[in-house]
Specification:
The protein is mostly helical and about 110 residues long. The protein is about 55% helix and about 5% strand. It has helices at about 10-20, 30-45, 65-70, 85-95, 100-105; strands spanning about 55-60, 60-65. It has a two-stranded antiparallel ribbon with strand order 1-2. The termini are far apart. The relative contact order is 0.21.
């Protein structure tokens, strides 16, 4: 179950931004969760707080942000019944999401 402070929409925005910065039409799941972990770690180092409030766990291919990883893999639904992919689609389809992010994240 996601922690009360976990923000799935923010996690989806972070992944969409990272996909845009990576310059790929699609961002593999493993690479996405690794980049989210590294962005969290860098934020903690620079600003004293992580981007996402969630536990980090050690996995066979290195550490990841646990809640985001679970949501991406469909292992956990959000409290309101939404899946993480619906949140990502919402970020992709939002009029507030820059066109550049939509293109690079493979949106809509």
């Amino acid at each position: 179950m996601a922690s009360a402070s976990y923000n799935a929409r923010k996690a989806a925005q972070v992944i969409a931004y990272l996909a845009m910065k990576a310059g790929h039409a699609r961002l593999p799941v493993l690479k996405a969760v690794k980049l989210v972990y590294l962005a969290d770690r860098e934020s903690l180092s620079r600003f004293g707080f992580p981007l996402l409030e969630e536990p980090q766990v050690s996995m066979p291919h290195g550490p990841v942000n646990s809640t985001t990883y679970s949501h991406i893999n469909g292992e956990e639904d959000l409290e309101n019944g939404q899946t993480f992919l619906r949140i990502v689609n919402g970020v992709c389809c939002s009029q507030h999401t820059p066109r550049k992010i939509k293109i690079y994240a493979g949106c809509c």
